[in-house]
Amino acid sequence: MLIAALLPLGLFIFPLWKITLEAPQYPTPLGMYIHINDFSDVHPHDIKNINLMNHYVGMKYIPESIPEFKIFPIAIIASSIIGLLIAFIGNYKWFLAWFILMVIMCSAGLYDFYLWEHNYGHDLDPKAIMKFTNPDGSVMGFQPPLFGSKNILNFRAHSYPQLGGLFLGFGILTSLLAYYIGKKIKKSSFKIG
Question: Total domain count for the chain?
Answer without folding.
Answer: 1
